[in-house]
Amino acid sequence: MSVAFHELQVSAVIRETTECTSFELRVPAPLEEAFRYRAGQHLTLELPWERFKLTRCYSLSSSPDLGETLKIGVKRVAGGRISNWLNDNLKAGDSIMASVPEGRFVLDPNTRSGAPLFLFAAGSGITPIIALLKSALATTKRAIILLYANQDEGSVIYGPEVRQLAAAHQGRLAVHLHFDSTNGYLEQSDVRKLLHHSDIAEFYICGPEPFMELVEKALEEAGVHEELIYIERFVSPVDPDRARPDGVDEASLESPGRFSLWLDGRSRTVPYVKGKTLLECAQDAGLQPAHSCESGYCGSCMAHVNTGKVYMRTHEALSDRDIARGVALLCQSLPASSEPLELDCDSTSFRAASAVKSSYSKRASRFAALGVFAFMIAGTLILRLVD
Ligand SMILES: Cc1cc2nc3c(=O)[nH]c(=O)nc-3n(C[C@H](O)[C@H](O)[C@H](O)COP(=O)(O)OP(=O)(O)OC[C@H]3O[C@@H](n4cnc5c(N)ncnc54)[C@H](O)[C@@H]3O)c2cc1C
Ligand code: FES
Fold first, then answer.
1. Could you tell me the pTM of the whole model?
2. To the nearest 5 percent, what fractions of the chain are helix, strand and coil?
3. Tens digits of per-residue pLDDT, 195-218?
4. Cβ of residue 87 lying under 6 Å from some atom of ligand 2
5. Would you kindly state where each structural domain of the chain is located, as residue ranges?
6. CATH architecture of 252-350
7. Residue closest by Cα to atom 3 of ligand 2
């Protein structure tokens, strides 16, 4: 099953910084329903590039809860194909091919307890984060702490909007702008000193890999449980002309005749057909585990390997830490041994909002009283703009 693309028109082009441009997109009336989205989700764009059609994901920085026009923000990547092309060429009135919004970097709808929300963004990582911020402000009463790191003042994307939100929500939203040029590189201690009530809070992280690694480590060292941490990785798929065979002969991989998949709280047995991915086999068996790109870069199909071994064709969406923790992408995985294979799509260890639900709701009720307390604390938060 491949991703379907629809034609959208660019209704406005906004130069955010010298390196980043936002594009507002008009959705034709017949597609409005299909393009409904949740804050934090992304579009996949399909663009012609030389003799190929390349795909790239861009997070929506607009909030569906404020009725804003669909908007993406694209920051140039040095040597990058599509980010530079979009910044240099895409104009108002042009059409662009986009998938319907997808992604699991979203607020958990079951978190209504007033648990604080910590948002960590760096550079273009602000795009899904500002959408989460606006939606959480509009639809919840949660206290929100935003740490937003940039090289310098000139590289802050959506700076005026962030400042306006901070001013409008004093006492509830604390914004910490960090500039490498004046504050030095962000350190784990900068993250740790923001943490209050981190046992009941949720944490969303998006930015360059070293930034995310640093924040994740700081949270881990502060004892934050990984099921409360959500991470969005901005990676490109492997373009057809950049793919390098890894030398693995898939035909020689051993496999069990079936595998078990935990999905929606139930274990299902799925027949394995040699040569197919675990996602394909699950779909053949009538199951619908979450998935989107089917190319290994969006992370929607993450599952935890409880027992057995898998081989992944590609795994752009995963960090080395994810792989070491036993996380795999169903759309890229084939069994790699004849041992019994069990995977868990519901596991909370890879920060998927839908997966967190069941365990989180237990936690939420356990901490209901503390949630009220956290909300009271929220009232005392002071807007702080560090420059
Ligand atoms: C869910 C998701 C959401 C995203 N949201 C956003 C967003 O909101 N805003 C945003 O700006 N970006 C976002 N991204 C990132 C975006 O999809 C692109 O990855 C990014 O724009 C870079 O694409 P590019 O074509 O410009 O660079 P690419 O051509 O993919 O290159 C990226 C870098 O890798 C190098 N490179 C890669 N392969 C090779 C090779 N074989 N040989 C030599 N060099 C190589 C390039 O030189 C360059 O430095 C998101 C990604 C994901 C997965
Ligand atoms: S569906 Fe996107 S990584 Fe598997």
1. 0.85
2. 30, 25, 45
3. 976 678 999 999 999 999 999 999
4. no
5. 6-98, 117-235+352-378, 252-350
6. Roll (3.10)
7. 296
